[in-house]
Every structure is written in structure tokens, then in C-alpha cells.
Write a structure and sequence with these properties.
This protein is α/β, with parallel strands linked by helices. Helices cover about 25% and strands about 20% of the residues. The structure holds iron/sulfur cluster (SF4).
């Protein structure tokens, strides 16, 4: 299936007057726009201390408003786009947020979520003070306490656990990360293996597929310079690094770059594509391998890159020992290997027209080193074996030699800066099996979504559990299993939720600790948004405004609304209180680098880091500033404009000193570690894989008991069409797409965002709706393995037939006993445990207008609170990547009498059984030499080496 966009009157008119390039001109290619545009639209920095605008609400009187403009970085997704906060000099309030034109990634532009930060900070329902539970967990009773009380109580628990050697009972579980290494420092200073994340419900699938090639688990597509862009899913509108990527994709398209998109929906992204390939979910790898086959058969591959930079000789030796190891034989054998992946086979699997696959393949081949591809979450997160989809996608970059090139796909580490911090602590001497269990030795990140089941099985307990901007009850699958363990003090001793907003997980905490939004906290941000390298500063803007006025602020909560704090200062304070006399050695890591023996201040921490950012001290000096002041003033610094082909760097004499070269493989090693590879007589850096090459053949997968997946391949998903009985109403449900104006669970208090996006109906193609006699807004019961949810049908042609889809990010709830929060977006519900493990959620009321501090509250016009689908999903751990495979096999039926929109039911005994069933397909450690995990694999918070070995 392929859809080429049809030109309408407006496009034709725009083409004719030259506003846009000719859309059907295959050869049109003008240089991409580099400059973000006319910066005169933005206030010039020399006027940021006193920027004058007329008051918008009193425009006819031309009343002047005087602002101090302070830059910060958005916190509403990982991109960290630049924001300028406009602080009214008269009232001291932030009036609005706009883009920061000096931010190298966002270049003054933001998505809707950036400026909506103003809603979040002004939300009358927000948490302003630390709260402590009263009564039983989850009963909904809270009392306000001081930060001192919170710090002392939690510190005492942690200290006791460490003194008693129960280090593995302390855990920090992060939802939205983004304070660049700070937390790793804290956890290692405490000597605990306490990092848990959300990554295995997010991006681990794709990360695994990419990392198997070259050790780099994230790729940075240089969209701006691409000739052809291939995207899996709706990346342009809602993908990772959303706004920085989207603006470059569109600029590239406007310069003539062609785009192909695999997506079951005619999303905004697919509608901007030249080829919409509505592949059946989970069959993307079959299509990608068919594209690879065309490239191989038609000689469109980059021979020079393949000869030098993939481990073809190792593969021939392993799989074809009888064949002479020549490049020509490799090409013969690889063509034989993929002979079955004909375009016709791919069409049969995916439903995408074979001719379209051939057309796309030829354009991919012709783009050569300027092929940009992206698969962040999407298909790799939805399917059993989804990691192979990302691996097959990178296969196309490898075949075309578009790895590390201008317009190609770059290892993310080239474009991301890792700050140098003061006095780093050593690796911890613990391995926490609640995070990295033996069954999943290749799991790319922690098996976070299995934590409730591990606790139920008695694999361990948590004495102190921090959640940080993290809401697993709502965002993770199987939320009722989370509720069951969160409410049980035998499994979780104390739970402190560090969060800017009330959420479904915080309702079951002991402490709810208000943390700042984008303009209320310190962080460092550096991401692979484009071919350059940059660093940005997130800062509490009212604190900075106070500093500019000459006022002293010791702690950030003094300048924030209420007593809203930030994590950085909280962790420093907590660490000192865990170790008040220094006897645990923890305090040493939180001592000032400038004032021996004194507690490190937040300014000193960032001063130390910025003084060490290459190039920053020099540029700051030219402005007559310290590096810290430069970042406070401009908010961002571009370290390098472009970074390409680093793998070809020749090792210096100093690097080579004391090294050895393996005759057969050409591997250059030093002190037992590979540092490079000999290519045509030169020692080059290469990639971060064991062979320092792109690993087409994975010895790691052979060694770790998965030899059948040693090459890029196609794994049939758990929701493959063979698993579906259509006549019984069975469908694959795609729950992984999102609306670009929403934040996972932090848009409930952003009124503009709730106004834009406030429903999540079940997308259904017209033909399916006709077959089952559904029409728009009909209530539908969606039966999962462990329960059901009641949704509304949306009948549309913009959808692949035979598949249904429902967006996440909507379906928020609160119970009558919970604080009145997020009322722009929460249903009021009752939760009943009808018998042990059987949970019913009934919607009592949807969204309503109400009288409140904000006049807009009485203007709420939407009533649809959506449905919380994730809580009805069982866990599906992929046995290799550890990724939760989000897609669901569901059975659709008309709603039953009494069913209300948003109602749902879950049986957690069934969900535990599904967990056990999937666990059976794992192939546990040890691997070679008794290892728990390949040493070359990344792991958050790496422990000491000996902990990698099972006793
Ligand atoms: S893409 Fe949008 S939400 Fe994400 S950081 Fe940028 S402005 Fe904020």
C-alpha cells in the first residue's frame, strides 16, 4: 500500500509563486537551510535585562511592560529545547515562555508543549509543599511537612539500610531523566546499585538492535543533509527529539528530500511523506530485508564501506568455512542468505505493495551515504523481536555506507557531551537482581516493568523507593500489579515520589515531594539532535532574576512558588544527612571543589562543569563573563557545528604507545581493551563494537545462546496475523502512538494542551467498522489477555484495515479521596477490588467545568476524559532486549449493558501468569566465563567488574 500526496490548489499555487519547491520534481535539491531565520523577531540579548513590550491584555492603552528575560530549557520531553522566560519586573512573575534563538538544536522554535510550561507553573492544582501520608497508603490523606522533616526521616532509613549492608533495598526509579549524570553520582556515592528506569517500556528494543551493530544504542540521523529519509512510524510529529528533528526534516523536505514512512496510521508524518507504507505491525523487518535484497541484487551497495567496515570475513568463517574468504564470495553468500526476502514475500507479510518496496529500495540505494533513517520506539517497542526491526533498519545504512556521514546516520555519542563532574565516586560493589535479573542477561536496560512481579515472587524487597517524575501505575502496563505492591509495606518500606504534579503513582506514596518544572530547577542537557554538538542549561529563572537584582538565594525553593524544590539540591542535602559525621564516606562526594571540607553549593557544581566544557571558557571570556555566567545569560553553547566520520580517525602515536595488533583481525588493543582497528595499513578508531567494525554477524548472540539471531533477520511478532482469528473479532491493537501535544503524564495540568488534545478513541478502518457494524462514538469493549477496557470507536480511512489503534497519554484518573488535581484531564473514578486480584475501575464522571482560581476552569468545554488502556495490558518481556512488547492481541465486541466509557477490569492473577509464560522463553545467564552480561554491553550505573560474574 502506498500513497503519494496529491497536490491541492494551495500546493500548486505555492509552487507556482515559488513559496515551496516543486513537489514532484525528483531531481530538485537545493542546499538545506542552516540559519533558523531572521533573529530580529527575537529580543536581542543586550536588551534581555530590560525588554519592553505592550501589555497584551491592555493593548488599546499601550501600557508598557518591562521584562527580565532569563533562558532555560524545556522539560516537557527529552529534547531540552531552549526557552526564554519573560519575568515581569513589576510583579516578579513569569508571564510567558518563548523560544530561545541561541539554542543550537531548537533555534528559537518550540512545539506546543514548550510555551505551555506557563500553564504548569501557574496551575492552581499543583503541589506546592512537601506532603506526608496520613493513614494507610493509598487512602488519600496527606499532611504538609517541612523539607527538614522529610530529609531527616528518609536519611535515617537510608543510613540504616547501608549500615546493615542492605544496599540493594534502596532504589531510585526515574521516568523523565535529564539531569545528565547527577543521579549516577549520587547513587554511586551511596554505594548502591540503585538505578531503575523506564527505558524498557520505551526504547530498549531499538537500542538493542542498533547496539548490536556498533555499540551505539542511539542513532542521530542527519536529516538536514539527507537525500532520502526512511522513518518507522510518526517520528516527524511526535518522535524522539521531536521539535529539533521535525524542523530539520521539514527543511530537508522543502529542499527536495524524499520521505518514506512505515506507519499503520495516515499520521501527520505519513501525510507529509512521498511513500506511506502501512505495513502490518511487526512486519517492518520483512520489508526492510526486501529493500536490502534489492540493494544487494542491483549492486546499489557501497562496496568500499562494506569491504572495510563490516565483519563479513568473520561471518564467512563461522557460517561458510568451506568458502574462500573474499569480498566477492561474501556478496554471493549474503545474497543467498536473503534470497527468500523477495518484495513479494514482504508484500505477503506486510500488505505493502511489492512495487512500492522496489521503488523505495532504489531510492534508498541511490541516496547512498545520504540516507537518514529513524526508528525510536514505535515498531521496535511494540513487537516480540522488535529489536530486529532497528537492526534491519541500520542494515540499510550499512549497505549504503551512510554510517557517520553527512546526511547519514551517526552514533549518538559523537553529538552528545558528557560533563566532567567534581570528584566522581567509584563503581558500586553491588548487583541488584531486581533490576538486572539472570533471566534477561542481554536486556538493554533494567527490567523495570517486571518489578511488581519480582517483589510478589519474593526475589527481594525495597526499603526506600524513590520515584522521580515517574508514574508506572499509569504509564506502564499492568498498573494494578503496581498498586498491589505499592500499597504493601512488606514489599516497599517507604516510597517517596519526587514529582512536579500529582499522579496515579503518587497517590500510593508515603511522601510526595514537589519538584520544579522547566523554569524551577537546574539541569544540564546535551543531546544528539543534529550533526552538531551542544550543551544547554536548565535554570530556576526566578532565582536567576533575584541574583541579577543582587539578592542572595541559598536554596532554589526559596525563589520557587511555595516550597517547590529541585532534585540536585535535594540530593546534596540528603547525602549530607545520611552521613552527618562523614563516617560512611558519602559526604566526601558532596564537598565543594573550591572550599575544602564545606558542603558543595549548586552554583559550585555547575561552575565546575562549565569551566571544563571545551571552548566555553574562551567564548565566555570574550564576552567578559565566567563560563557559568555565560550559560546563565544565553542558556546554551554550541561546541561543534558538525561532527562526521569519527570512526575513521587515525590513532595518535600516544594512543598507540604500548598497544598490540592482532594479526588476523587487525584489532588494536591496549591493556586488554580494544582501542582501534587496522584498515588498509592505518590504525583507526573504528566503532564501539568488539570488532571495532559494524557487526553484521553477532558472535555475542551466538555466545549468549541465540545463534538463530546472529544476523539481521525477521522475527514474527506475537501479534502476527497468523495469531488472529478475525471472525472472532480478534485484532492487533497498536497502543504506542501519541498525540504530539501531550506529555506522558504531565499534561494533565497544562490547560492549553488539554484543550488541544482531549480524547483517545479507538481508530478503526471503515471496512472493519462496516463488517462489525460499528459507527463513530459507539462504545466498544476491548478485551485483552487480563481484562478489558471500554473505548469509543473512531471510524476512519486514515488507518490500515485489520488493525486498531489507540493513543496513550489520555485516560488520566483520580479517585474521590485523591487531591483535586489535573482537573483539566482526569476522569473521576472509583476503584473496587471485587475479589482478590480482580480490579474494577468505574468512571464516575468525565471532565467538567468548575469554578476555580483560574477563570479558564469554568470554560472547559470538553467532557471526554479518555480511557486508561495500559492498565489492562499484561507484561510482555522480549527475551533478548528485555523490551516490553506493547502491541496487544485484543478481541473486540460491542459494549455490554451497563458499560460506561472509560470503565475497565483487570485480573492481576492472570497478569502474573502471563508474566510467567513469557519468562519461560528467556535464556538465562551465565554466559561465557560465568558472566551475567556481555562486558561490552552498556549498562546504566556499571558496578565493579567482579559483580559481572555469577558466583
Ligand atoms: S520538543 Fe516540545 S516538549 Fe520537547 S523540549 Fe522541545 S518544546 Fe519542549
Amino acid at each position: 500500500m502506498s500513497v503519494l500526496p496529491k497536490k491541492g490548489f494551495i500546493e500548486k499555487f505555492a509552487e507556482n509563486i515559488g513559496v515551496i519547491p516543486r513537489l514532484d520534481n525528483e531531481n530538485s535539491k537545493i542546499e538545506p537551510i542552516k540559519d533558523p531565520g531572521d533573529l530580529s523577531n527575537y529580543p536581542p540579548p543586550e536588551q534581555w535585562d530590560n525588554w519592553v513590550e505592550y501589555e497584551a491584555t491592555k493593548w488599546s492603552r499601550k501600557k508598557e511592560r518591562h521584562y527580565t528575560i532569563v533562558p532555560t530549557s524545556c522539560f516537557n520531553c527529552e529534547s531540552g529545547c531552549g526557552l526564554l522566560s519573560y519575568i515581569d519586573k513589576e510583579t516578579g512573575e513569569v508571564r510567558k515562555f518563548e523560544g530561545n534563538p541561541y539554542h543550537p538544536a531548537s533555534r528559537g522554535r518550540n512545539c506546543a508543549k514548550g510555551p505551555a510550561t506557563i500553564n504548569q507553573i501557574n496551575d492552581p492544582d499543583r503541589i506546592l509543599y512537601p506532603m506526608r501520608r496520613v493513614g494507610k497508603r493509598g487512602e488519600g490523606q496527606w499532611e504538609r511537612v517541612t523539607w527538614d522533616v522529610v530529609l531527616d526521616e528518609i536519611a535515617a532509613k537510608i543510613r540504616k539500610a547501608i549500615e546493615e549492608g542492605r544496599n540493594n533495598e534502596i532504589s531510585y526509579h526515574v521516568g523523565r531523566p535529564g539531569h545528565e549524570g547527577f543521579m549516577d553520582r549520587v547513587l554511586q556515592a551511596w554505594g548502591i546499585d540503585g538505578h531503575n528506569s523506564h527505558t524498557n517500556v520505551c526504547s530498549s528494543g531499538a537500542r538493542t538492535g542498533f547496539a548490536l551493530w556498533d555499540g551505539s544504542d542511539r542513532k542521530m540521523p542527519d536529516f538536514a543533509n539527507a537525500e532520502f529519509i526512511l522513518m518507522i512510524s510518526a517520528h516527524l510529529e511526535s518522535g524522539h527529539y521531536f521539535n529539533p528533528h521535525a524542523q530539520r526534516i521539514i527543511e530537508s523536505k522543502n529542499s527536495g528530500t524524499k520521505i518514506a514512512v512505515m506507519d499503520i496510521r495516515l499520521s501527520n508524518t505519513a501525510s507529509r511523506a512521498d511513500h506511506w507504507m502501512a505495513t502490518y505491525p511487526g512486519t517492518e523487518a520483512a520489508v526492510l530485508l526486501a529493500i536490502a535484497k534489492v540493494i544487494l541484487d542491483e549492486g546499489l551497495y557501497n562496496e568500499a564501506f562494506l569491504r572495510d567496515w563490516i565483519n563479513w570475513d568473520v561471518w564467512l568463517e563461522a557460517d561458510h568455512p568451506e568458502t574462500e574468504r573474499t569480498f566477492e564470495n561474501f556478496i554471493l553468500k549474503i545474497r543467498e542468505e536473503y534470497a527468500e526476502y523477495t518484495p513479494e514475500f514482504a508484500e505477503q507479510e506486510s500488505g505493502t505493495d511489492a512495487q512500492v518496496i522496489v521503488d523505495v529500495a532504489r531510492q534508498v540505494g541511490r541516496a547512498g551515504s545520504r540516507l537518514s533513517t529513524i526508528n525510536w520506539r514505535s515498531a521496535s517497542s511494540g513487537n516480540l523481536g522488535g529489536w530486529q526491526i532497528a537492526r534491519c533498519l541500520q542494515f540499510l545504512n550499512v549497505l549504503t555506507g551512510s554510517i557517520g556521514t553527512k546526511g547519514g546516520s551517526l552514533p549518538s555519542s559523537w553529538n552528545k557531551y558528557s560533563p566532567k563532574m567534581p570528584n566522581p565516586p567509584p563503581a558500586q560493589k553491588y548487583w541488584n537482581e531486581l533490576h538486572f535479573p539472570k533471566e534477561y542477561p542481554l536486556a538493554h536496560f533494567e527490567m523495570s516493568f517486571l518489578l511488581p512481579h519480582f517483589l510478589k515472587e519474593g526475589r527481594g524487597k525495597l526499603d526506600v523507593y524513590f520515584t522521580r517524575v515517574f508514574n508506572p501505575v499509569w504509564t506502564f502496563p499492568d498498573g494494578f500489579s503496581w498498586i498491589e505492591v505499592l500499597r504493601d509495606p512488606e514489599k516497599i518500606g517507604i516510597h517517596a515520589a519526587l514529582t512536579p504534579t500529582w499522579n496515579e503513582t503518587a497517590y500510593f506514596a508515603d511522601y510526595v515531594l514537589p519538584m520544579g518544572h522547566a523554569s524551577e530547577r537546574h539541569d544540564i542537557i546535551s543531546y544528539e539532535t543534529h550533526a552538531g554538538k551542544w550543551i544547554a542549561f536548565r535554570q530556576p529563572v526566578l532565582r536567576e532574576a533575584a541574583r541579577r537584582r543582587g539578592e542572595q538565594v541559598e536554596y532554589t525553593y526559596e525563589s520557587n512558588p511555595g516550597e517547590v524544590w529541585e532534585e540536585d539540591e535535594f540530593w546534596i542535602e540528603l547525602s549530607w544527612r545520611i552521613d552527618p559525621d562523614g563516617s560512611l564516606g558519602i559526604r566526601d562526594y558532596f564537598v565543594s571543589p573550591y572550599r575544602p571540607g564545606e558542603k558543595m553549593s549548586i552554583d559550585e557544581y555547575y561552575q565546575y562543569i562549565f569551566e571544563r566544557v571545551p571552548g566555553l571558557p574562551e567564548i565566555a571570556e570574550k564576552e567578559g563573563m565566567s563560563p557559568l555566567d555565560y550559560m546563565r545569560r544565553f542558556g546554551a553553547f554550541e561546541m561543534e557545528e558538525e561532527v562526521f566520520e569519527l570512526y575513521k580517525n587515525v590513532l595518535s602515536e600516544q594512543q598507540l604507545s604500548g598497544s598490540m595488533v592482532d594479526e588476523k583481525s587487525g584489532l588494536v588493543t591496549k591493556d586488554g581493551t580494544a582501542i582501534g582497528i587496522m584498515i588498509n595499513g592505518k590504525a583507526r578508531t573504528g566503532f564501539d563494537s568488539p570488532s571495532r567494525k559494524q557487526e553484521f554477524f553477532s558472535q555475542t548472540l551466538v555466545d549468549w545462546k541465540w545463534p538463530e539471531h546472529r544476523l539481521p533477520g525477521y522475527i514474527r511478532s506475537h501479534i502476527h496475523s497468523e495469531q488472529m482469528e478475525n471472525a472472532k473479532g480478534e485484532f492487533p491493537l497498536v497502543p504506542t502512538f501519541r498525540l504530539p501535544t501531550l506529555i506522558h503524564s504531565r499534561s494533565g495540568n497544562a490547560k492549553w494542551l488539554a484543550e488541544i488534545s482531549n480524547r483517545n478513541p479507538l481508530w478503526m478502518h471503515t471496512s472493519d467498522a462496516d463488517r462489525f457494524c460499528f459507527k463513530n462514538d459507539d462504545l466498544i469493549r476491548v478485551n485483552t489477555e487480563i481484562g478489558f477496557f471500554i473505548a469509543k470507536v473512531w471510524v476512519t480511512e486514515s488507518m490500515r484495515p485489520g488493525v486498531v489503534a489507540c493513543s496513550h497519554h489520555i485516560g488520566r484518573w483520580r479517585r474521590p479521596q485523591d487531591p483535586e488535581a489535573n482537573r483539566w484531564a482526569t476522569n473521576s473514578v472509583e476503584i473496587l477490588e471485587v475479589e482478590s486480584g480482580k480490579w474494577k475501575m468505574n468512571v464516575l464522571d468525565g471532565i467538567n467545568a468548575f469554578d476555580g482560581e483560574d477563570a479558564d476552569m469554568s470554560r472547559i468545554f470538553w467532557r471526554d476524559g479518555g480511557v486508561h488502556q495500559n492498565i489492562t495490558h499484561a507484561v510482555h518481556p522480549d527475551p533478548i532486549s528485555g523490551m516490553h512488547c506493547w502491541h496487544q492481541k485484543v478481541r473486540l465486541e460491542k459494549a455490554h449493558p451497563g458499560d460506561r466509557y472509560g470503565d475497565l477490569f483487570v485480573d492481576t492473577k492472570k497478569s502474573f501468569q502471563v508474566y510467567k509464560d513469557w519468562l519461560e522463553s528467556s535464556r538465562p545467564a551465565p554466559g561465557p566465563g560465568g558472566l551475567r552480561r556481555p562486558l561490552w554491553f552498556k549498562r546504566p550505573l556499571k558496578p565493579v567488574l567482579e559483580k559481572f560474574y555469577l558466583k
